[in-house]
Design brief:
alpha/beta; Nitrilase/N-carbamoyl-D-aminoacid amidohydrolase; elongated
Amino acid sequence: MNVLAFRIIVLWGWRRAALAAISGAVSALSQAPFDIYPVLFFTFPVLIWLLDGVGQSRAGSSGQKRKEFWSAFWIGWYFGFGYFLTGLSWIGAAFLVEAEVFAWMMPFAVVLLPAGLAIFPALACATARLLWGPGFSRIIVFAVAWAGFEWVRGTILTGFPWNTIGYSFSANEAISQSVSVFGIYALSLVTVMISAAPAALADDGPKVKRSRREKFGGPLLMLFVFISLWGFGTVRLIRNETSFVPGVSLRIVQPNIKQSEKWKPENASRIFSRYLELSDIATSPKRMGIGDATHLIWPESALPFLLEERSDALSAIAALLPDNVTLITGGIRRSQSGGQKSTYFNSIFTMKGNGQITGRYDKFHLVPFGEYLPLEAWLKKLGLRKFVTAPGSFASGKGPVSLPVDGAPSMSPLICYEIIFPGRVTDKNDRPGWIVNLTNDAWFGDSAGPRQHLQQARIRAIEEGLPVVRAANTGISAIIDPYGRILNQLSLNRSGVIDGSLPAEIQPTYFSRWGNLPFLFMLIAALFSRIMWRRKK
């Protein structure tokens, strides 16, 4: 261990940058669909040793401190760039849907987005290096900095918390139960502490020897934490079976429509007919069609036209739906008043059997460059445009909300990536009974993207103690219980339906009540323990 650590510590120049980038890229294997989280036990110690190589600063030397800061910054940036370049490479598929328009942008987006996101691990490494200490104390401060800047990444400029490192451990159903107490950012803190702990098994340098107790104390503590989390989750899952809402029978439609075909006018009738046909197919002797369901669910922007403005479509839906069946569907909505320019919303509608729209929800957390173009006046001059088809940028609605649903508990409607934001998926003043996530992951093909999206939906279910019902155009549609267990799912690129019952909500979790306050408390406690650890030295 010492030999390996010392060889990494003395690396310099391009070798240091290359090892940091490779370690970051390998770390992405911890995320879905690979879920190989043990790789972090190798990659994070490497990152710690690379930061050790920055060297000790001379007392009172502001210039040396500055040099250490920037050296650590670039180590973290190369690590983050490798991590996001590999983990988010699937984003490039969206640029090939309309290749004649967007393909030229693909290399820039696939590289520039990871380059920008890498700033956050870079700042984490640089900040941690300013507070660096001996032995396990540096592991603590590093984990605090990393988790803190992940929270910043998920919040600043509307936020993008995709592939937060805590999702690596969340692939394990038992360990993922901990987010019901303290959320995904706190799991990131614990994940980094546990994963980086092996770095403490090596001496701090060729001339700095440590006792066996100093070497093994921190890693053994982290092993105890890991086992405790596993034990807590295992007991929680064993003691709590899934219960269901009486009288609610769901049918989720997954039409599997290619994104390149969806918005062609000549395909509109065929697509609508596919929805009607799938909605009423027999899947078993007990499920002979739409009459055996109480709630029919279609995915995001299901129909390639403005549903509210098509009386023929509304009549066809009314003819399909029995009186006791409610349709929940995604669609684009247009609002116009006083002769002003039309405003468009990415929306969810609820409809009854008479064809009447009974509820509406407008997406409030829009996707930059997908549903609206930031700095539109300037960027359009550079030839940039948004991806989603509409005459203009979408407007933002108000949310999150609890939307009443006939014959079922009220729901929290979320469209596409609104589900990825911890603590921002339900109305805290009006708790719903379930979360409905309508999405269209056809943009990203058969890639890691839709699988990572599903993983994050699972964690929201555990955090909030609410079931998540997910309808996706090309997959992955699923019914998830409040403990994150997937009860039914339809995989990618398949056309079909899911028939199932609605899991019942459980008592509000600690996270649903307190949000990220437990996480902030853990940050403070970890920093305090680091201070006390250093004083003992």
